[in-house]
Write a structure and sequence with these properties.
There is one protein chain. This protein is of the alpha+beta class and 447 residues long. 29% of the residues lie in helices and 13% in strands. Helix 2 runs antiparallel to helix 5, helix 2 runs parallel beside helix 6 and helix 3 runs antiparallel to helix 6. It is globular, with a radius of gyration of 22 Å. The N terminus is likely disordered.
């Protein structure tokens, strides 16, 4: 797969990759089991009568007993019931687990099957997905929509991971770090401007609706940081009373800060020896992760840091061009390294590292202009509001993007907890600007 676009003489060369070239039916079968067991494994330390299955009400999380079943319900409703005409495996599932119909607050008030029955439901749905993959009954779009359901699994697995952080439950990922060499990196890398393509190419084997479709846009040349803002760099802002200086905050950001009482980064505290940050259920001095990317930061905080530092957030077009389009105009819309899955030394993904890593690690995955960790480690806020592209086409699941246009900010690149099959350079994540719970950081551009 190669898309090249030269600004002087615009031309596009596309070698299409079919879904089956990337994810055969056999591979999808493996992914179904992996996604299901990863989802269940995210709460495998809960006993059946554990209070954490419901947990406290928090606006940014779901009760795990609901979230686990919701993910299974979505796959059953979307693929098995709508596409293949099967009956629901449990009674009243729509009334309990349809996120479009069940108000967030009421998810703590409903009666649910036991934890054992819920896990059994998830596995029975997985078995059903495998059955239709192995015999699709002539419905040749089955593979695509199973891949879509797997992506939904992956998104919620990551959500459970940062929910555990929010609720001080610790993380279930016990994998050892990969010990990828850390090669310190700093400064900006220049990216040439001009006429470029933004958005997903039809040559990509799988994309979400909000990535559709590649269209021409103009980007002025810009200088973007080679790496995300680090814990140390953000601590300097906090030490300089960045949270107390009204002039650093936008009107809306100031309203958020005042309403929430935010005066330090979330999960941070200060004692006589200096700053500490909570990772999972334990507290560590920030020196232990000094060169890691700042994480769990809201869009408002990122914006205030930029004002303090005389910098700015990149637009999502700038971020994507830095990841996809090299100095010669050749475009690789899937990953900075090309049209293949990442190698272990190219990106912090899939929970392999068990947490964030130094911003100088994973040099093998550098972008075409020399930017590091565009994929993995932390999601990166951009300055852009989440809006449809000019050639937007809604997916069969219309609630994926359309209801959220105009209300959220775009993040790019994935985190250490993101599955590599879920993210790509054109993928657009989106959250409301006050969210501090997600694995989000930011990199900046020169003004």
């Amino acid at each position: 797969m190669l898309v090249a676009y030269a600004t002087a003489k615009p031309r596009t060369i596309v070698t299409a990759m079919e879904l089956s070239d990337w994810a055969s039916s056999d591979r999808l079968v493996g992914w179904v089991h992996d996604a299901t067991e990863t989802l269940i494994g995210a709460v495998d330390d809960f006993s059946d009568d554990d209070d954490r299955w419901y947990g406290p009400y928090v606006p940014v999380v779901n009760p795990p007993i609901w979230e686990l079943a919701h993910v299974a319900w979505f796959a059953e409703w979307f693929v098995l019931r709508q596409m293949h005409g099967r009956d629901s495996l449990i009674d009243a599932s729509d009334a309990r687990y349809d996120s479009a119909k069940v108000a967030h607050r009421t998810r703590w008030e409903l009666q649910f099957p036991t934890a054992t029955a819920t896990k059994d439901y998830a596995r029975r749905v997985a078995d059903g997905l495998v059955e239709v993959l192995e015999n699709n009954g002539g419905i040749d779009s089955t593979d695509f929509y199973v891949a879509y359901a797997i992506a939904h699994h992956d998104a919620h697995c990551e959500a459970l991971s940062y929910s555990r952080q929010t609720l001080t439950w610790g993380d279930r990922d016990t994998a050892d770090p990969t010990h990828v060499p850390n090669q310190p990196i700093s400064g900006d890398r220049h990216v040439d401007g001009g006429a470029v393509l933004l958005g997903a190419s039809r040559s990509q084997p799988f994309v979400m609706d909000n990535e559709k479709w590649a269209h021409r846009t103009h980007v002025d040349g810009f200088d973007m940081a080679a790496a995300p803002v680090t814990v140390t760099e953000f601590a300097a802002f906090a030490d300089d009373n960045g949270y107390g200086k009204d002039s650093l905050w936008s009107m809306d950001g100031l309203a958020w800060r005042n309403q929430t009482g935010a005066d330090v980064p979330t999960y941070w505290r200060k004692d006589g020896s200096g700053w500490q940050r909570r990772i999972g259920a334990s507290w560590y001095p920030i020196e232990a992760t000094a060169d890691h990317p700042m994480v769990h930061v809201s869009w408002w905080e990122a914006q205030a840091w930029c004002t303090w530092a005389g910098r700015r957030l990149p637009t999502e077009a700038e971020w994507e061009i830095a990841a996809t389009t090299g100095p010669g105009g050749a475009r690789q819309p899937w990953f900075p390294w090309g049209d293949r899955d990442p190698l272990l030394n190219e990106a912090a993904l899939d929970g392999v590292t068990g947490g964030t890593v130094p911003v100088g690690a994973f040099s093998a995955g550098d972008g075409p202009w020399g930017h590091r960790q565009l994929i993995g480690n932390v999601w990166e806020w951009t300055s852009s509001t989440f809006e449809p592209y000019p050639l937007f086409e809604p997916d069969a699941y219309r609630d994926n993007s359309e209801p959220w246009f105009g209300t959220r900010k775009v993040l790019r690149g994935g985190s250490w907890s993101t599955r590599n099959r879920y993210v790509r350079s054109t993928y657009r994540n989106y959250f409301t600007p006050e969210r501090r719970d997600v694995f989000a950081g930011f990199r900046t551009c020169a003004r």
